[in-house]
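Crash report, auto-generated. Payload:
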Amino acid sequence: MRRMKTDSLELLRRIVANLKCLFGGSAFLLIFLIAVCAPFISPFDPLEQHLLDTLRPPGFTNAAASTYLLGTDNLGRDVLSRLIHGSRISILIGVATVGVAGSVGVLLGIISGYYRRIVDELIMRLVDVTLSFPTILLALAIMAFLGFGLVNLIISLTVTRWLTFCRVVRATTLSLMGHDFIEAARAMGATDLRIMLREILPNCLAPILVIATFEMALVIIFEASLSFLGIGVEPGTPSWGGMLNEGRNYMMQNWWLATFPGAAIFVCVLSINLLGDGLRDTLDPRLKR
Amino acid sequence: MYVYIAKRVVQMIPVLFGVTFIIFFLLHLLPGNPAEVLLGPDATDEQVREMEHALGLDQPLYAQYGKFIGRLLRGNLGESIRFRRPVTELLREKFPVTIELTAAAMMVIIVISLPVGIACAVRRDSIFDHLGMAASIAGVSIANFWLGIMAILLFAGALGVLPSGGRISSDVAIYGLTGFYFLDYVMKGDWYGLVDAFKHILMPALTLGIGFSAISVRIVRASMLEVLAREYIVTARSKGLAEKVVVYIHALKNAMIPIITVIGLQLGILLGGVIVVETVFSWPGIGSLLITGITSRDYVLVQGAVLFFAFLRIGINLLTDLSYALLDPRIKYH
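Recovered output after restart:
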């Protein structure tokens, strides 16, 4: 127990010492806190329309002309407040999708690698078929039939993002199957479920954690893409991709409508990718190259 | 070799069926009745039943799937509800438009990722390497549609040097020989048209290519690093060969096999990105057609376009697989 605690502390020390982890993790933590505290820190209600103040330029470019720090949109809604609330949508969809897709993928990956033969064949063929669709395309098709909405968005992205988890966990499971500790657990009478959960799963955690961060970054971009195409969250909901979609017709004369939501997506995804890169270097130095 | 190709093609068949199965059941099992969607909220029950009958939705699922496969095998993807034209005809019309953009983006990927990836590997841990990797991680983090919007704001808006969208200017002649504008203008010797087509494709191709280059740079770098650490490279260097010869003749040649494979697979993934980029630049390809189908609830068109993209991707992956086997003589055709 004490050994495990020391190992965990050592791992945590290595993660914090990694600059990419430190910068990426700190930036993501900040965005996460902004998302959590959104109702308390946003200067205006993100849905409130100030019809006398439509398309106001950002306050920092001309403080006398605008009281809105990042300007307003065509309906007079405060861009900064919508950006702050938009972080909630991105992070919620990112965490929920990775949580569900990760659970499905890990479960199927372990089952596939553990039982092999026909079970493995079936699951891998399902992976092949799903891989035949470009992610955004399959998500679009599902959204087209399900309709707008947060839950539908999470479902459509989950259907397309469980594959990476499944393939990596299957490969790790297959590589673990010949090891003595698995045989020892079996000889001691452990059930299949126990071996999968107590012996194999803990050994898959490092790659799962790394994949989860990269997948979250991808999911945030896919969500923004779908919302940008007008097939994501409900119209009017403050989401970064949706803001870009709503601002498209006005962006040539009002640069802030396109610049800030895209920059927010970039900063958020970059922070997660940096964290993922750092975690990969720390948890699996063989992949550092 | 022929046996290997035949085996790979046969292996593809269940995947193709799986794809049709998913698309078909996606449409039929998800909540919502296509007939109700088509008729709108004011439709009476009788009208809905008539529409269901007209679309064949009142038949058992297996019968509908059988009919769907039968039509598919005859190359019939149904008639678009929005355009009142066969979906196959619409896809055939838009195919060169999307492929032209995808090919241009592919060239961007190759032009950026090969030299940058090689330079990063050769100068490992130098400032150039660190900058290259930082640019790569930034490139992966940019949503390509935002990059496109920013490019429009800068090059079409502020500088006014490139058109903001479309495939060709309205005052330029269109020949319609092959459907590929570049090829058409070269065949006709119309250089004005060629330059105009180039100006139109530049921003969408760069937008699509830059994000994927960011991934490819890493793959090229990793592949080169692996080869540069091999013993025969050490031998080549110890023989006193010039560094350029070692890198470009000995290392690159061997590193190219995985690079080509990965770039080939990227082509399949590019097809997903093309849908979004076509929308940003009003590029009239299959991606834009698909979005029109979705917004107008034309489920026949959506089904056809999704199937088309999936089949194309499976085909590209197969060709990549075969080229990998062809390029690497060590691979035996099991």
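Post-recovery validation: Residues 23-31+77-283 of chain A form a domain with the MetI-like fold fold (CATH 1.10.3720.10).
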